[in-house]
Specification:
single chain; mainly alpha; three-stranded antiparallel β-sheet; 3 strands
């Protein structure tokens, strides 16, 4: 049995499941870590969550689609923005996260760390507290932006 595609609840949760890289399955096929979603007292659909190792690849693929070009082809500011998004989504708490992101962006691990340091320095300085020059100094890039 496959989940009923015409079920309004399934239609409503599908974009979320797609965004996290999950898979909709029939409730009777649910296994240990799958999440069964019920609506009005009955099991409607189950969600098979992605493995953590697949999550980062899924996020990177989504960012590539969003930008319309391979991430390595983005300019430096956009790459910094991508790193900011990835940090917010927890990409760097995963083992080999920095290496995976560096490869996708076509930069070194050192550059990714500089982007992260720059972001953290700007956040610590607060709005209007020196801007990019203060962040460059805090990141040790001396105004070069790190890459």
């Amino acid at each position: 049995m496959t989940p009923p595609a015409d079920e309004p609840f399934v239609t409503a949760v599908k974009p979320l499941v797609d965004a996290i890289g999950g898979e909709l399955i029939a409730p009777d096929r649910a296994q240990g870590d799958d999440v069964v979603l019920s609506w009005e007292g009955r099991a409607v659909v189950a969600v098979r969550l992605p493995h953590l190792s697949d999550s980062l690849d899924h996020i990177l693929a989504e960012l590539r689609r969003r930008h319309g070009v391979p991430l390595r082809d983005l300019d430096r500011r956009t790459k910094q923005s991508v790193v900011r998004v990835l940090e917010q989504r927890g990409a760097f708490s995963m083992r080999h996260g920095v290496e995976t992101v560096a490869t996708a962006l076509g930069v070194s691990r050192f550059t990714v760390y500089n982007y992260l340091n720059r972001e953290n320095a700007e956040r610590a300085a607060g709005p209007g507290a020196g801007g990019a020059d203060a962040a460059d100094e805090a990141a040790g890039t001396g105004g070069t932006g790190g890459a």
